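Support request, please re-run this one:
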Amino acid sequence: MLACSFGNKHCHQQASTLISDWISSNRNRIPLNVRDIVYCTGVSLLDEDVWEFIWMKFHSTTAVSEKKILLEALTCSDDRNLLNRLLNLSLNSEVVLDQ
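Re-run finished. Output below.
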């Protein structure tokens, strides 16, 4: 987690590869113990399509723990428009549940 947060290129490359593999295969093979940092790093480094993919997965999963990780990852974007969109969507309790 620290390696990616401090900009370690190898960590960034690994996270980007794992996210890209997940998107292309639609099979999440990202180890559970690193999903939070991989999702967050992917959202912060890659394009809006990754944000949209994570948003779609947030809505399609029923696992509460996975929903939490996905929602937190969406906040990792540096794109003000995406963050503003997330904020507005989160105000609707039908889209993002209150709890």
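The chain has a mean pLDDT of 91. The chain is about 70% helix and 0% strand.
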